């Protein structure tokens, strides 16, 4: 009897040790995954999946762990879950200093109103001084901290001045939204090359200049660089050679900048709104470089700039790398282009050819 009791003890102890070993191995794995999430600032997996992972993890522990060890695991779990559950609440735009270029109309103006409502301090830039003044008055009356600087982003000096004035007023910079942009509509065989140069100067060089002068302050704040690009930055759109080229160039620049800063804490977001109701098609340049003055598309059926601004605010707060809006002409088009580029070329040709007065109809 006593012999039996004696032999059962090491067996029990051995089982406990195996369980403990399992537990330690799982806990180690769990902590490693957590550190992984932390290191990449939670960009890779959304909070919903993280919580699901924690739940699965706690269930596996429960199955084969004595209550005492389970309790320990659970408290560790809660401690780490705390970070996850409150992640959204701790990150916000409140008191963040944000520069928005192209803020006198459309998406930029909607962002100014949205980010202001989040409690951000906003510095707005565009060429139209009169419109900027009106917007400053409107936002200041709504109780937002706002400043405006007349800026042509295709001029390096203007971009430097914009950043310096923002730093002089607010003392820091957290987010730069490179939104200023122009479009075009003409076949390459007909277009004046000056049009393409102008598009590159505003859309691409404007982004480069502003980012260059803002970067030291953004590195200091571990802030965000945002590029408001387009689906035309993923898919070459017919009749928009200069526009697509400038947005593809933005993508290359921002991708490389993100990789270069993998370990500095800088966040880079490339946002591609689908068709959005705005002034962009009216101010698009024709073959000779004149603004076409009217839109060839039904603006009232498009996504509203306010919706884009809401998505942008969320993506910046969550430090996402990429934001593609609209389904059919956005996410689906980018997906099809990746795997069936020839099919996508035919689809986008036919789609754009349907526009009234399409240059390649
Ligand atoms: N609307 C769409 O369907 C759509 C879709 C995808 C991407 N996007 C992108 O979204 C961004 C915003 O466009 P939006 O649709 O809001 O068009 P928008 O209403 O025409 O706004 C464009 C803004 O850019 C500013 N801008 C133009 N040239 C500038 C320059 N040289 N320097 C400084 N600011 C300049 C304009 O202001 P001033 O004239 O006062 O300078 C205006 O505030 C653009 O980058 C565009 O490519 C738009």
Low-confidence stretches: 1-8, 82-90
Q: Tell me which CATH architecture of the largest domain applies here.
A: 3-Layer(aba) Sandwich
Q: What hetero molecules are bound to the protein chains? A: NADP nicotinamide-adenine-dinucleotide phosphate
CATH class identity of the largest domain: Alpha Beta
Oligomeric state: single chain
CATH topology of the largest domain: Rossmann fold
Number of extended strands: 7
Task: Set out the fold topology.
Blueprint: H1 2-39, H2 47-64, H3 67-85, H4 87-90, E1 97-101, H5 106-117, E2 121-126, H6 129-141, E3 146-150, H7 156-170, E4 175-178, H8 193-221, E5 224-228, H9 241-260, E6 267-272, H10 305-317, E7 322-324, H11 327-339, H12 341-353
Parallel strand pairs: 1-2, 1-4, 2-3, 4-5, 5-6, 6-7
Helix pairs in contact: 1-2, 2-3, 5-10, 7-8, 8-9, 11-12
NADP nicotinamide-adenine-dinucleotide phosphate binds next to α5.
Description:
With 361 residues, this protein is α/β, with parallel strands linked by helices. The chain has two domains: 2-89; 93-353, Rossmann fold. 57% of the residues lie in helices and 9% in strands. The chain has twelve helices and seven strands. The protein has helices at residues 2-39, 47-64, 67-85, 87-90, 106-117, 129-141, 156-170, 193-221, 241-260, 305-317, 327-339, 341-353, and strands at 97-101, 121-126, 146-150, 175-178, 224-228, 267-272, 322-324. The chain has a seven-stranded parallel sheet, sandwiched between helices. Strand 2 (121-126), helix 6 (129-141) and strand 3 (146-150) form a beta-alpha-beta unit. Helix 5 (106-117) crosses helix 10 and helix 7 (156-170) runs parallel beside helix 8 (193-221). It is globular, with a radius of gyration of 26 Å. 35% of the residues are buried. Residues 1-8 and 82-90 have low confidence and may be disordered. NADP nicotinamide-adenine-dinucleotide phosphate is lined by residues 101-108, 126-128, 131, 151-154, 179-182, 202, 228, 230, 273, 275-276, 278-280, 283, 305.
């Amino acid at each position: 009897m006593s012999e039996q009791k004696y032999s059962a003890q090491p067996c029990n102890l051995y089982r406990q040790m195996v369980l403990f070993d399992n537990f330690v191995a799982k806990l180690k794995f769990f902590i490693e995954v957590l550190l992984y999430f932390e290191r990449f600032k939670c960009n890779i997996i959304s909070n919903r999946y993280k919580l699901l992972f924690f739940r699965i993890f706690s269930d596996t522990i429960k199955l084969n762990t004595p209550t005492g060890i389970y309790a320990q695991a659970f408290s560790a779990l809660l401690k780490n879950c705390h970070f996850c559950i409150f992640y959204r609440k701790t990150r916000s735009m409140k008191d963040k200093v944000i520069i928005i270029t192209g803020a006198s109309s459309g998406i930029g103006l909607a962002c100014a109103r949205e980010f202001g409502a989040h409690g951000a301090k906003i510095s707005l830039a565009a060429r139209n001084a009169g419109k900027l003044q009106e917007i400053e008055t409107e936002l200041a009356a709504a109780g937002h901290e706002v400043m405006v600087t007349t800026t042509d982003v295709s001029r390096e000096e203007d971009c430097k001045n914009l950043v310096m004035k923002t730093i002089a007023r607010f003392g820091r910079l957290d987010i730069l939204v490179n939104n200023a942009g122009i479009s075009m509509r003409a076949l390459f065989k007909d277009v004046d090359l000056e049009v393409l140069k102008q598009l590159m100067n505003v859309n691409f060089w404007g982004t480069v200049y502003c980012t260059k002068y803002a970067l030291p302050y953004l590195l200091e704040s571990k802030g965000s660089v945002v590029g408001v690009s387009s689906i035309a930055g993923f898919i070459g759109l017919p009749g928009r050679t200069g526009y697509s080229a400038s947005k593809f160039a933005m993508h290359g620049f921002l991708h490389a900048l993100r990789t270069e800063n993998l370990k500095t804490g800088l966040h880079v977001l490339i946002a591609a709104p689908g068709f959005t109701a705005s002034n962009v098609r009216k101010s698009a340049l024709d073959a000779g470089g004149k603004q076409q003055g009217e839109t060839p598309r039904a603006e009232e059926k498009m996504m509203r700039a306010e919706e884009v601004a809401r998505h942008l605010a969320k993506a910046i707060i969550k430090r996402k790398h990429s934001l593609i809006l609209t389904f059919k002409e956005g996410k689906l088009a980018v997906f099809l282009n990746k795997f069936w580029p020839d099919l996508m070329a035919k689809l986008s040709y036919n789609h754009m050819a349907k526009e009234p007065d399409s240059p390649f109809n």
